[in-house]
Write a structure and sequence with these properties.
homodimer, about 300 residues, mainly alpha, Farnesyl Diphosphate Synthase, two-stranded antiparallel sheet, 14 helices, 2 strands
Chain lengths: ~300, ~300
């Protein structure tokens, strides 16, 4: 894989940062504080979803929407916020003592440490609900058909045969030797399907034809797997300080990973192969897809 | 309030039982078992949502849909199943050690006792997702506008300013003296909004005018509150065997309830007043609404 120039990297990073700011603003508005008795719940939801993160999934929504001709940035920001809320809910529940039992998230106390377990469970529950609510509301798109398609695809990506199903398989795999196809299936569900939804969502919002939508699905599938392999590599090579969360968790939980199966060099090669595949799927969009192409390099070269 | 005749009671009960059977069948089909690696998750979802319960919410969907001219019973059963899944998810999470810590549900081990905490958290999460998925799918109604309206209303009923918000307020209220308006607000969120959605859903599915939809909303609001007051009474007067769950929980958790504020007799009167109000809202539908009227008596006279 060719090393991208420093200038390009800066530009992608600027674009990512700019997008993250806009998303924080949108999330902040959607999750308005008030004086209702359930305020503690809103506080915990805000804590879980605001204040950091690279917002890669939200960025994918915004970039794919732009390429697919979505002019109304508010609509794209709502869909991106919905994906970020869904992702945040999964992290809040994942960190719970009964699950991964992780006290740290992005270098801060995880939601159940900052609040308490019950509040964290409810905050995750309500963030999931809100992700669907936002997609269903008229402000997201004038066409009910577009909105309900977004709802359906997010549900399929995140439910029992998507993200949550993947989390279950991940838990059941602790201490077991999984094969490479098993690991690929696990991660295509656990992290892959939501990333695929993020890139597909732009095409749904832009009401593109099937062919174009298929390219974004394929891009999401390949960059999602590359992202996960890079995650496995980081878990063994990066420090807790770099990660902002507990390092070496996979080995500790005796999980089969891409690294345990392919070795670090083999895993790196596979990540780079998939990143290159992902880039190919959007190459037909030319200059418009520059950031999505840059992103394929970014996900495999990041340090956190 | 007039005591309803034994014959009428039997007929409502037969209708309820028949509906519960149909709903179990539909839920069983929607939650098909298979041989996927995430099977343990599906098993836990099935355990949480199948096997019992009065299916009052599902019944309300079916009856309101019938009155609103919905001919396609499969569509109504899908919406009813969605409501039952949403309700089941809330019970699974409610029973968790960090929440109500209840080992029993309908006389059986609660989901986290039968499986484990992590599986119960994930099963609840996936049941919520599936409730939205089912509403969004084309099989529920040919009109995308109807489907997306159902999604939006279910989200509003069950999220941070609905059911989950109510659970948060309920938890925060433990050990505190709440006023009657506080208690009413709590329960209109915690149990009321989902019951209101169940009765409104039939009108949405039947694409009725605003006036008719408003009557079902009002019916749901009043029967929901009557139901909750009856629940508070049962918690102090019924045995664990009758309830199939832990009795006396409210007093144990030092919660303010309708009984602690109004006394048993006062609470009974308020429940009957609200049941009569609920019946009035659907009286214009005549014989068609007979079961919904009978149901207003049933919810305040039930023993579990």
């Amino acid at each position: 894989m060719n090393k991208i120039s420093t200038e390009e990297t800066v530009t992608l990073k600027q674009s990512l940062t700019q997008c993250a700011h806009k998303l924080e603003e949108t999330l902040n508005t959607l999750l308005a504080s008030g004086n209702r008795p359930e305020e503690r719940l809103i506080d915990a939801m805000r804590y879980g979803v605001l204040g950091g993160g690279k917002r890669l999934r939200g960025y994918m929504v915004m970039e794919s929407a732009k390429i697919c001709g979505v002019r109304n940035i508010e609509q794209a920001l709502r869909v991106a916020s919905s994906v970020e809320m869904l992702h945040a809910y999964s992290l809040i529940h994942d960190d719970l003592p009964a699950m991964d039992n992780d006290d740290l998230r992005r270098g801060q106390p995880s939601t159940h440490k900052k609040f308490d377990e019950a509040t964290a469970i409810l905050a995750g529950d309500a963030l999931q609900t809100m992700a669907f609510q936002i997609l269903a509301e008229e402000e997201t798109h004038p066409s009910a058909a577009v909105r309900v398609e977004l709802v359906k695809m997010l549900a399929l990506a995140s439910g029992a045969h998507g993200m949550v199903g993947g989390q279950m398989i991940d838990m059941l795999g602790e201490g077991k030797n999984l094969s490479l196809p098993d690991i690929k299936n696990l991660h295509s569900l656990k992290t892959g399907k939501l990333i695929r939804f993020a890139t597909e969502a732009g095409a749904i919002l832009g009401e593109t034809n099937k062919d174009i939508r298929g390219r974004f699905v394929a891009y999401g599938r390949d960059i999602g797997m590359a992202f996960q392999i890079a995650d496995d590599i980081l878990d063994t090579t990066a420090s807790e300080e770099e990660l902002g969360k507990t390092a070496g968790k996979d080995a500790h939980a005796r999980k089969s990973t891409f690294v345990s199966l392919l070795g670090i060099e083999g895993a790196k090669q596979e990540a780079q192969r998939l990143a290159a595949e992902a880039a190919k799927h959007v190459s037909a969009f030319g200059e418009q897809a520059r950031f999505l192409v840059d992103l394929t390099h970014f996900v495999v070269e990041r340090r956190n």
